[in-house]
Amino acid sequence: xxxxxxxxxxxxxxxxxxxxxxxxxxxxxxxxxxxxxxxxxxxxxxxxxxxxxxxxxxxxxxxxxxxxxxxxxxxxxxxxxxxxxxxxxxxxxxxxxxxxxxxxxxxxxxxxxxxxxxxxxxxxxxxxxxxxxxxxxxxxxxxxxxxxxxxxxxxxxxxxxxxxxxxxxxxxxxxxxxxxxxxxxxxxxxxxxxxxxxxxxxxxxxxxxxxxxxxxxxxxxxxxxxxxxxxxxxxxxxxxxxxxxxxxxxxxxxxxxxxxxxxxxxxxxxxxxxxxxxxxxxxxxxxxxxxxxxxxxxxxxxxxxxxxxxxxxxxxxxxxxxxxxxxxxxxxxxxxxxxxxxxxxxxxxxxxxxxxxxxxxxxxxxxxxxxxxxxxxxxxxxxxxxxxxxxxxxxxxxxxxxxxxxxxxxxxxxxxxxxxxxxxxxxxxxxxxxxxxxxxxxxxxxxxxxxxxxxxxxxxxxxxxxxxxxxxxxxxxxxxxxxxxxxxxxxxxxxxxxxxxxxxxxxxxxxxxxxxxxxxx
Length: 521
Hints:
By secondary structure, the protein is mostly helical. It folds into 2 domains: about 5-205, Fumarase C, Chain B, domain 1, CATH 1.10.275.10; about 210-320 and about 330-415 and about 425-515, Up-down Bundle (Fumarase C, Chain A, domain 2), CATH 1.20.200.10. About 55% of the residues lie in helices and about 5% in strands. It is built from 20 helices and 9 strands. The strands form 4 sheets. A 3-stranded antiparallel β-sheet has the order 4-6-7. Helix 15 (about 340-370) packs antiparallel against helix 16 (about 390-410) and helix 18 (about 470-480) packs antiparallel against helix 20. It is elongated and about 90 Å long. The chain starts with 8 loop residues before the first strand and ends in a 5-residue tail after the last helix.
């Protein structure tokens, strides 16, 4: 494990976090510190809450119950119990344990909101939350429990429960244990929550936003892989790169389309396979199938959607999501900013484009395996068709994933189910949208990996013709990882996993960019 002093540090409170900073903490273990200006804001915010403790006027979250129980006035001597009861009752998640990186992202984003001074949290409570995150202690959060409105209540409550020294956590080594044991080992004292603090700890869109940030980083890499796999398939199928010419793309000035087409031009430049059929006498086809010819239109549309989702994420990262909030002039006001609709919509939108990007990839793979459409390649790229089946079932695997992705593309945000005795009568289901997007991104990674593997086999079968330097570098990366190239049938699953790992690690993009001498768009 990396020594703490060697880890990068992310400062919270001096400016909004970036998507990259969220991922650095969530996935790479970066440490968190709070800017001094933020501590001043936290102290001022708490002074407002402390001044209202004896107020005869009811203040939601300070001297009342919660949700549909907000009409109950809570006396001063029961308010510590009120906060404990809120967290214990709301830590009601169920199902599989949520991934560590998701919980770390959620914790960081809640820390960011707490550090604004608009929530009324005490300084000592926030310091304990930061210590919990920096120690590598991760509360056990469950798959089900959030409706994406009034915040990701159950997931955030499981984190708040850990601050109280209750529930279960996993330590820095991933071992699940009682929270009290982990806190004692880390030298962290649990906190006793006071007025407003329980609500401040759980009323945010942090879970769905954290998963959006993680997905955006993953999709940024996979969009480059999609252009690489498309270029490989087009070359392997004796397709044309002329349709990607800059002047043709400029006739439809969609930003993402232009970027994707530029990538395809660069990736296919210098291909001996392409040069072999430039002569009209050697190639009688007028135009390629849509899955080849329209690759930049589809991948470009995906890029533009990711760009839109990134803008939404950046705005949410600059937001204060809590209810009630403490305003700059010291008012305590109820609001609806905890509703996850803006985030939920783009999570669903991304699941749609992920499914379509995987779909066009699968169509290219299927074309390479069909003797009637592959322009001279053997059936299923088999060594001895009939005796050998080649990549026949690899395409089945792609098809099964693509079918699953289509189901995952059904929007979660169009659903709403009333809760809290109809007080919370419209919810975003953003957490559910984020959970299915995570599965969709993993599916896309696997579909693209199978296309890369299949296209590499097709390209090798075009020998002695050679692909472009960039495509050749990707084939070489597969070979360096143990891929033996075309040949008789063998156990195919490990080869697919090698390709999946190369895609997921960035090695496929790195190989292509290394050969090009510059980054892809």
